[in-house]
Amino acid sequence: MASETIVDPDFKVPAPERVGEEGKTWSHVIQNLVFTVDHKKLGLMYIGSGLLFFVVAGIMATLIRVQLFFPRSTFLDPDVFNRFFTMHGTAMVFLVGMPMIFGFANYLIPIMIGTRDMAYPRLNAFGFWVFFFSGLLLYFSYFGAPGLYNAGSAPDVGWFAYSPLTAKAFSRGHSTDYWTLSILLGGIGSLATSINILVTTFCLRCKGMTLGRMPLFVWLFVVVAFLVIIALPPLSACQIMLTLDRYLGAKFFDTQAGGDAVLWQHFFWIFGHPEVYILILPGFAIANEIIPVFSRKPIFGYPIMVAATVMIAFISLGVWAHHMFTVGMTSLGNTFFAISTMVIAVPTGIKIFNWLGTMWGGKLHFELPMIFCLAFLFQFLIAGLTGVMLSVVPFDWQLSDSYFVVAHFHYVLIGALLYTLFAGIYYWYPKAFGRMPNRKLGLWHFWLFTIGFHLTFFPQHISGFLGMPRRIFTYEAGRGWEIWNQLSTIGVIIQIPGILFFVFNLIYSYFKGEEAGDDPWDAWTLEWATTSPPPEYNFEKTPEVRSRRPLWDLKHPDDPDWKFE
Amino acid sequence: MTGVHAQGAGADLPTHMVADMFKPLSRPAEMIHETSLLVLVICAVIFVVVAGLLLYIVVRFRKKATDNTQEPPQIYGSTNIELAWTVIPILITVVLILVTSRTIGEVQNAKLPEDALQIRVVGHQWWWEVHYPQYGIITANEIHIPVSSKDPQKARPTELILQSADVIHSFWVPQLAGKTDLIPNRTNKMWVDPYTIGTYFGNCAEYCGTQHANMLLRVIVDTPENFEKWVANQKAPVPPPQTPQEIEGRRLYYANACVNCHTIGESVSKGIFGPDLTKLMTRQTIGAGVAPLNHENLLSWVRDPQILKVGCLMPNMQLLDNEVEAITAYLETLK
Fold this sequence. Notes:
Chain A is built from 16 helices and no strands. Chain A has helices at residues 26-35, 39-67, 78-112, 121-144, 175-203, 216-247, 261-295, 302-316, 331-343, 345-359, 368-391, 393-399, 403-433, 439-465, 482-512, 550-555. The longest helix of chain A has 35 residues, at 78-112. Chain B is an alpha+beta fold. Chain B is elongated and about 100 Å long. Chain B starts with 14 loop residues before the first strand and ends with a helix. At the A-B interface, helix 3, helix 7, helix 8, helix 9 and helix 10 of A face helix 1, helix 2 and strand 10 of B.
């Protein structure tokens, strides 16, 4: 006897109503953002809020440059100017650089190692929100800081806030406290994310992915995460010490009560120099993925690239006092830090040569990501060489705290880091949104921004040679600085439309871009094996890999990598 | 370069307003300059080689329209090549280290003669206090020193003892020497040894607050004879005020809070928060270089210092017009 049908064939199990699934109304969108623990959404939120703060800090930089166009200009008051460069520097490092790199890490690491999410998704969301509110807190200082009559609003002590300028006697009101608390808070978020990166990469790699088969991108972020965990505690410690000084009568940095002004510098730079590598290694990480794909060759010398990264990270912990060659260290101290700083040029040089070696004999495709990476190589070469000049202590006695230093670190942070971030955004945009970024708009962005960037920052090397100190709100005519400052300001005016093209491209391509498909660049790492955009669980079936380029093996079964690695 | 401020001691000297570190006119700056040139040349060569290689690769290995879709040969690395581009940078680094440590020693550990002129410079927000302990002179913002010589036998270097009264500042006159910080609770030392007479320009090079930009420096290097003349004038007593306005000005100066912050010679005006005014009119500028010292600017400063230098620590004393004029007239007798 035929069994009685007890299942209605038309019946479907209703999909469980889940928060944020719809995304149709604003309240859904907000719920979706606030409650998500998905590493991809959080990654995009990191990058998005980084871009937001980038625009705000960039507007401040523009106003700074306008003020410096003419000598003795009265466009900005000195205090307003001092707040602008402090907020610009602090925001660019802590609210733009850090979230952007963590955004890339969040989005890509789980997919690249073939897993479904970060090890601690909730910690991940916590890290993002702590960072985001630390940024809001910093900017809230404009409204919340003036606690005393005539006290300043936003912080105006410079992004490295040398004591005793931050002591109660010299920094009245609460502006310095907003700065301190914001950085302390941001540091908690960074630590959380770094721990998450380490646990994820060490515990959640897919089958077959040994450490030696991880994409270099992931390797570099492992190193970055270690550096964050080592470098951030001294920063947090000195922020707490400063707060104790300001409110509970401690005397760590209060020179009027016998404290030590130089102690702050040691604390700050023992964080601050590794921080430079925390920011630039992710740039290298992105270049490590893009250059091979658009050269159609594997990275040259994978093990050496890993070794060089670890070496850079290790040495970077012993170079902090090269920011302090003018504080009157002994000749022995100066020599030690000169040597350690110069030695770091060796592994860095290896990296540049290995990228060149990767391109040598390849077939270079000048797609948007590759163009930005080539500019990165050129600009990072300049930044590295000016870095070598600054490590030569006697040269540094002249250049330290001059516009030459400003030029140097903007070549590092814009010329190298920001260019690789642009490259990365163009490279993974099709993965994240399923549509290709517009090439024409991208080229406008590239050329305007590149011309503007060099016009802005190259002349600053020269004004530094001519004795122009950084952080001055004005200068007298006749010192030989006018023309260089004017070129610099014109450069910014050219950069701005470049950025507008970039932002427009992101929005335009989201709606009108060409369909990308899963693997538009014919690439080799696991993120290109899933759909674009990837589903929430990334992979239906956990992948299994046998080499560093699993998709190469798949596409070239006759010539797989695992035979040669 | 012509002088823009034609008043005060040493105003007739040639001015070096463009403080180009590649035109050193003093021994430490010269030693720094030599090292820097070598480093620049090495870096330029590296730049040309690597950037040239990059350009070559971009042109040579670009994908051509005629290319088939075949992938290029897959090369994974080469130990020998890696070794080469590790060893060469190491050799360059060794050269740089040797050159650097030699120059550090030469500049930092130079033996100065026992009788070298000593000047104590104390940084304040936002001006420089200048002491000549060997002469008992105190002045501000403009440092007078005698010219030295390239000939080591005749060289008369000057030692600068650097201290700070509040936050960190940095002493930087690029054509004379590299910069050295002035740090509260510490004493740093540096030395200069200029070959040619002239007025050298410099700045505070460590951000020190609102008016960091207008914490300007002038080093006035003159012949030993003229330097001695300047010393004699600084030590000579100030002539008493003559006209009724000057006398009224002096009365007002001592009746107001001026004495709390400023010193004038051997009087009851012994304040130490502001610059010493004993020989005010022998200086070229006012407000640490913010404006030339002339009648108009001095009037403006006495009326309200915040006009010329907003944020400076001298408050507006709320004086009446006739009081401003009288005090200015009195100050103009201080020469």
